Amino acid sequence: MTEKNPVVQMQTSMGDITIELDAEKAPITVKNFLAYVQDGFYEGTIFHRIIGNFMVQGGGMTADMKEKKNKAPIKNEADNGLCNVRGSIAMARTQVVDSATSQFFFNVVDNDFLNHKSKTPAGYGYAVFGKVTQGMEVLDTIRQVKTGTKGYHQDVPVEPVTIDKVTLVDAE
């Protein structure tokens, strides 16, 4: 089967990031992410949690740290064989295994401890659903911004880093 993977371009206030989504190994997650993309949901959201030697998280909060209304949570596909390595994109979630909605994170280093290890809640892991093909230097710039605390939220950029637009570019 030679179906092409969808490719999206994420325009941020610090530059563009191109992401190839893995529709074969993470079909539910990719479909969910693309539904948010097609709705324009990510426009005007921020990267609200940045930990320089770990990851850059976004896709759910506005610049004033208000959470946007999400669609229903999806099944966690962390057992798909994809790993949380530098440059991968994965779904953020709560302690509940199947709780991912719109938020995602980019791994800026290899985070093996986030990979699927077992079917238990503690071992389930975080579902990787794609990888950065261009713009890793943009993420390396974003991961170095100054962060602080806003309300109950920690590791929030002092100056908002916005997601201006996410568009489906192509099926590669």
Q: Helix and strand string, N-terminal first?
A: EEHEEEEEHEEE
Q: What is the mean predicted local confidence, pLDDT?
A: 96
Termini separation comes to 14 Å
How can the largest sheet be summarized? 8 strands, antiparallel, barrel
Low-confidence stretches: none
Share in helix: 10-25%
> What strand order characterises the main sheet?
1-2-7-5-6-4-3-10
Count of individual helical segments: 2
Structural class: mainly beta
Task: Walk me through the structure.
By secondary structure, the chain is mostly beta strands. The chain has helices spanning about 25-40, 135-140, and strands at about 5-10, 15-20, 45-50, 55-60, 90, 105, 130-135, 145-150, 155, 160-170. The strands form two sheets. Strands 1-2-7-5-6-4-3-10 form an eight-stranded antiparallel beta barrel. The longest helix has 12 residues, at about 25-40.
How are the secondary structure elements laid out?
Layout (H helix, E strand, L loop, with lengths): L5 E7 L2 E7 L5 H12 L6 E7 L3 E8 L25 E4 L12 E4 L20 E7 L1 H7 L4 E4 L2 E5 L4 E10 L1
Antiparallel strand pairs: 1-2, 1-10, 2-7, 3-4, 3-10, 4-6, 5-6, 5-7, 8-9
Summarize the structure.
This protein has two helices and ten strands, in the order ββαβββββαβββ. With 172 residues, the chain is mostly beta strands.
Descriptive terms for the model:
single chain; 172 residues; mainly beta; two-stranded antiparallel sheet
